[in-house]
Amino acid sequence: MDDSFTELGDYIDAKIGDALMSRQTAFGELTVVVARDQIVQIMRFLRDDPRCRFECLIDICGVDWPARKRRFDVVYHLLSPRRNTRIRVKLETDEATPVPSIVETFPAANWFEREAYDMYGILFSDHPDLRRLLTDYGFEGHPLRKDFPLTGFVELRYDDEQKRVVYDKVKLMQEFRNFDFESPWEDAKYLLPGDEKAGE
Question: Does some domain include residue 15?
Answer without folding.
Answer: yes
